Amino acid sequence: MPCSACGGTFMVIQATAAVVGEGLVETNAWGIGYGDVQPWTDKWLDLDDARRRVEEAYALPDCEPAQLRRPILMFFRLCRELADFIEDETGLSAKAFVHSDPDLRVCDALAQVTKHRTRNNPNSMTARIATFNRTRDGQHVYIHWRQRDCEGTDDAVDLVVRCLDAWDRFIQQHSLRTPARDHLA
């Protein structure tokens, strides 16, 4: 049965109850079932959780590089996967949007290089975590990207915010409904 709020069929919650006495009902079982296809809105919530983990890692006072690297790479992998989920479910050209947005192109490059280690096409953008810096102002992770003769470096949190802003624009432009999420301040 589809969800009455969103129409989704991925997760179904069922509860059973038993009468244990006159006018008394006890809930004795419940379960959550999952459908065949995870909706894109779940990937959106995963992305928001990954954003929070990046923010939390940046806030750690004595964070090791690996403690920052893992949530950052996870965020950008999920951010890129969101395009696949939206496109598969809605038919909208989300992958083309990724390739047209400068920040999401860096996201895609980092996700692809993280997954495959290298890019086979010499015209494809590459990206990697280049440096971890700790200063009096806090910690910073810098992502270096390169495509043909162009290259640049972005602070990871700044890029996280810009990628979320890009997805917000896409979602609003196509009137998609999303679960609520918090934004980075």
Summarize the helices and strands and which ones pair or pack.
Elements: E1 11-21, E2 24-34, H1 40-59, H2 65-90, H3 94-100, H4 102-116, E3 126-135, E4 138-147, E5 150-155, H5 156-173
Antiparallel strand pairs: 1-2, 3-4, 4-5
Helix pairs in contact: 1-2, 2-3, 2-4, 2-5, 3-4
Question: Which labels suit this protein?
Answer:
185 residues; alpha+beta; 2 domains; 3-stranded antiparallel β-sheet; two-stranded antiparallel ribbon; 5 helices; 46% helix; globular
In short:
The chain has 2 domains: 1-36, no CATH class; 39-173. Helices cover 46% and strands 26% of the residues.
Number of helices: 5
Rg, please? 21 Å
The average pLDDT score comes to 82
Across the major sheet, the strand order is: 3-4-5
Total number of strands: 5
Biggest sheet layout = 3 strands, antiparallel
| Count of the domains | 2
